[in-house]
Structures are given as C-alpha cells and as structure tokens.
Amino acid sequence: MIGVIDYGAGNITSVSRALSHLGRAHRVSGKPEELASSTHLIFPGVGAAGSAMATIRETGLADLIGDFVSSGRPTLGICLGCQIVLAASEEDDTPGLDLFPGIVKRFPGDMKTQARPLKIPHMGWNRVVFTRPSPLFAGIYPAGEFYFVHSYYPLPAEEDLVLGRTEYGISFCSVLGRGNLLAVQFHPEKSGPAGLKLLDNFCRWDGKDAL
Amino acid sequence: MLSKRIIPCLDVREGRLTKGIGFKNNQDIGDPVAAACQYYQGGADEIVFYDITASAEKRGILIDVVKRVAERIFIPLSVGGGIRSLEDMRTVIGAGAEKVSINTEAVLNPALVETGARAFGSQCLVLGMDVKRTGRTIETPSGYEVVIHGGRTCTGRDALAWAKEAADRGAGEICLNSIDADGTREGYDLELTWMISSRVSIPVIASGGAGRPEHLASVLTEGGADAALVASLFHYKSHTISGLKNFLHERGIPVRLL
C-alpha cells in the first residue's frame, strides 16, 4: 500500500488518480497512524511553504516523514514536497524538514531570455536533464519534459544531491535525492506519459537498488 | 527552456461538443471525453473545457465530463463558463480541474479574482478576457475594450488596464480572446497579444483566429504569447497536434514533442 500525505495544501486528488490509473493500491490520509505502515510514501503539495510546514508539524506528519525516511522505505516529495526536504525556504522564511542540506530560493525577478523578461511563476512544460542515475528515470533517461508550476526552486548544498536540472533563466535543480528519499519539483501526475512512467518507477522501487 | 503550450479548447454544451471533430472512422464524434483523450494521446499540453451555457443547474453535466476526463488524462485541465462563485470553483476543482477560468464574473465582481486566488492559489485562476478593437479613446487608451457576456456587452473598460488589474489581484494567467479575430481563421491579433503579453507579468494564452500553422508560429514569437488556444484548426481540418508541433519545432519554437 502506497501512502499519500494529504495535509490540506492544494489539490492532491490528481496524484491519487494517477496512481489508480497505474493500478497502484494507495491510501490518501493526513493522519500519521494511517500512513505509518505504508510500503512507499508520497508527499505532494502546492501552496505556501509557511502554512504547509505549520500543518505538517502540528499534525505529526513531520515526524512521520522523518521516521519513514529513516526506515529505508521509498519516499517521494512532489513540488512543495520537494522543497520542504531542505533546511529552509525563503518563502515565508520557513524552516524545512532539514532531511538534506540546502535552501529554497525565489527565482530572481530580473531573469531574461532573448531580451524578454521571464515570467514568474515558472509554469508549463520544461525539460529535465537527468545528471545522475536514479531508479526513477528508468525508461525516461537521459531527459524528459515535465509540467512545472512554482516560483521557488530547491538549491541543495551538496552537488551530489542534484539528480536532474532544468533551465529557466538560470539552471536549477529539478530532481534531488539520495538513498531512499527522492524529490521532484515538477508534477509527474500532470506530466503525461513521462510523468506516469516516473511515478510507476517509484512504485516499483524498493528504496535500494536500481530497477 | 520553457515550451510554448498548445492547448485544444473543447466547447461543450450539455455534455456534447458543439463543434464536430474530424476524426476518421470514429464513432465518438461529439463526445468530449473521447475528444480529450484523443488530444492527450496526440500531445496536447493542456486541455480547456468551455461551456457557455453552464449555469448552476446545468453544471452537473459538465462536472461529470470533467470527472471522467480527469481519470483518463494526465495533463492540466482547465474549465470555464459560468463560474460565478468560490463554490463553483471548488466544484470544478474537486472534479479534477487544475484551473478555473473566469471572465464575465471577474469584470462584474473583481474581488472574486482575489478570493479565488487566495483560496486555491494563483496557479488555479485563469482570467478569460474577450477583447474588441476600438481605436484609442479616452476610456480605452490601449485601443482595445473588454467585452463580456460572450461578446454581447461592451464594458467601456480598457483591456490593458484590466489585464494589469487582474494580474495584481492574483490571476495566474490570462486567456486573451480577440473578438475581432475569433472565427476568421485569418490569424491571431498579434498587436493585441504583444501589447498584453509584454506588459503583464503572468503568462498569456492567445485565442481567436487560428487558421493555419503559421498563425501559431507568429503569435508565439511576434505576439509574445506563452501558449496558444486552438479550436477549429483541430476540429475541422486535418491538422494534428503532433504535426503542428513539428512545424513549430522546425522553426525553432520550443514545444514539447512526444
């Protein structure tokens, strides 16, 4: 059973629908006790970092995520869930779960491409170039296009945490992780066949070996 | 680099497509669920459902369509037509839409843009704008006026001023439809699209006038549009999404290829 964390931050039913489409049994819940026995854990999320982190701490989900990662089971953060694994975010000046060293920064306001200003949020389909091998990328490697919606981006403090990069005015880390904890800044559940493949790879993964 | 999005728009009325789609040997002509799935398979970047007849009583049919589509396709879905309240937004988002588009109601009640953006996030909220060329006047210094009620009612509001206001109020995107170009198949209004796109900080989806692949190339370059809404180009003609994207790709325009 795959656990999907629902902490009230945005619409996570699309993740649930994608898992159903893949034929993966899952449970959506905001209660740590209902998720603790899961084989895999996904924490999606859109919305503001400050209120999301407050909810995660109050409800005991922060401890659940920490324990789950320590247990070695496969864990996947999506979008905001990718940002909160780092130590802190510039958004609302929020401390994160600090599972990896690094911070979350806002895209600079003056980015340009071909002399035209780049819009924020970064919204739409963009290319992810996989910079390190990961079980998530089986069948998609070396690159794919995925759907993004975000104004802040993760900046891990250690280069070997960076698994994929995307260009939007700057080159930023769009996939990060180590061991059994992986996180993607884009929305695989909204990224067509490539996104479904990535989610399916995660569901088939044991948290250790390559697929 | 961010890809330019190609977005098929499905006009739905009481659960059926109002424009026929030129699928060959397809029994499901007129079924919006089948059409959406076909577009998804073909490489659409997003799909818009627009129901001009939607009202509180009749929305159930559209909601059912959205639910069935959301189970089958895994790209963003956007729903517009007759959205008048937070409750309406909640219903379509709950059915599986990522985005809701508000048009007439946003003009009549601009606070709805703010409350909608606060409740669901700006990324959920698309401002639909129907715009008519007026020439520069004191009321409309940009030369374009906002019209509502599907183009039947002139508001006297300047299009550029409204676009900026809506962006400030929290709209996450603008879907900009030229009433003059709509249905002509002679190309998007490039001047209008560039004027809005270059002056607001949020993405602009160009709408109205696509008749040939060249029109999309123009609006995505000269027009500065971030995305193009396409209806009849796919509905009536033999153009496919992948064919269109290859055309754009060959001209150096970044698009997502399957």
In short:
The complex is a heterodimer of chains A (211) and B (258). By secondary structure, chain A is an alpha/beta fold.
Please provide a written account of the structure.
- The complex is a heterodimer of chains A (211) and B (258).
- Chain A is 24% helix and 34% strand.
- Chain A is globular.
- Chain A has helices at 13-21, 32-35, 49-58, 61-70, 80-83, 192-204, and strands spanning 2-5, 26-29, 40-43, 75-78, 88-89, 94-95, 102-106, 112-113, 116-117, 122-130, 143-150, 152-156, 162-168, 170-178, 181-184.
- Chain A is built from 6 helices and 15 strands.
- Chain A is an alpha/beta fold and 211 residues long.
- In chain A, helix 1 links the parallel strand 1 (2-5) and strand 2 (26-29).
- The longest helix of chain B is centred in the first third of the chain and has 12 residues, at 59-70.
- Chain B is globular.
- Chain B starts with a strand and ends in an 8-residue tail after the last helix.
- Chain A binds chain B through residues 10-11, 13-14, 17-18, 20-21, 46-47, 113, 116-117, 119-127, 145, 147, 149, 167-168, 189-193, 195-196, and chain B through 1-3, 5, 40, 45, 70-72, 74-76, 93-94, 96, 98, 120-123, 172-173, 198, 201-203, 224, 226-227, 256, 258.
